[in-house]
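We modelled each protein-ligand pair independently. The example shown here corresponds to the zinc ion entry; the chain sequence is given first, followed by the ligand as SMILES.
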Amino acid sequence: MGQRDGIAAARLALIAHLRATEGAQVALLQRLLRAPSANPPGDTRPAAAVLAAFLDVEGCPARIHAARPELPNLVAAFDGRGEGEGGHLVFNGHIDVFPPNDADGWSGELREGRLYGRGAADMKTGTAASSIAFAALHRFRDVLPGRVTLTAVSDEQTGGALGTKWLFETMGEAIRGDVLLNGEPSGINNIRFMEKGTLRFTVTVRTPGGHGGYPHLSPSAIKIAAAIVQALDALHGFAPPLPDAVARALDDPATIAAHDAGLGQGASRWVRQIAFNAGVIRGGRKVNQLPDLCELECDIRYPWGLTRAAVEANVARILGGFPEASWVVTETHSYPPSLAPPDDPMVRILADVVEHDLGAPRPVPCSSLGGSDSRYWRYAGVPAYLYGPSPVSMGRADEHVTVAEFLHIAKAHALAAFDWLALRGGGNQRL
Ligand SMILES: [Zn+2]
């Protein structure tokens, strides 16, 4: 049997394996949903143990790389045929989740075709799907060329310094790879290829203050803060020019429709515009007192086409008009936008798998409005894409995923990774 026949047979066997193990896949996600991993406070060991046990049983154990013992990051890898010659595909997901609304958050209940629990959307479904894909590909490592790495991290929800960022700092090349797949919530009708940047900062306004009836003796810190909010709002809605390929992708009517349908009407505009938000304001002690202190916590989401330096310069220029104000950037939550090519082979491969193998509508390239760990790969020059479940219920009391969607994502990750590795290894991708 030739190499090409071997790959074609392995692909059919992979599809059969994924079909035959659907019950076990659902059971894995259910175990993962039942294992607490809220961050904060940040102790993900029970959930990490579920994934580690699954990988052990599959014969592809993970190593633990932990900056802190209660936040274990799992890294597993294997080489395919030819000792890894070909491409290196990396899966990435996070184990930590938002705190649950109540004790039911860890129910993992299966009801009417849906699995409920904190993280069902963000992102235990995606992390389980990637782990299932990784273990399934491991079974065909004698045939499949290239290398596959799985990274399941425990610190994403609170800034991520001890998760993916830490792995890049301590492992570097080992997890960089040539392409990244991540199952963060996106909706199965789209493939996320870009994310906005964030600049988070606190503005402090100080004045002498005094009695409210004596405005000639001091300005009001609250009134100045209100004027600052109005002035910074001039940045809201600004849209820089985009590279042609990106503008073309975002202007495609199917992409506009997918943004508006998946992220809310109007989202297609906001993926390319600055969004300024003054999320918290604190000031004043008593109604008849002139406030001497007012603090504003601000968050700017800026699109590809702008640098952090340019955004900071604009904030500095605006705040320069208010001598009573000073400002400090929150470094842990400030990062530049990231972009992967919307026309990369992986986008086509993933879309082909969804359309032809899974019989679902062809997903289109879209932008995210929030951030994900995929940006670390994009910063390193590696094309990185999100393909995961519907984001609609994430963080809610009834957070859930449909069983059908979960199984769809596991298959999409496994088959897209298989086809990408086969293509990079010189095999025929559409078999
Ligand atoms: Zn997430």
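The radius of gyration is 24 Å.
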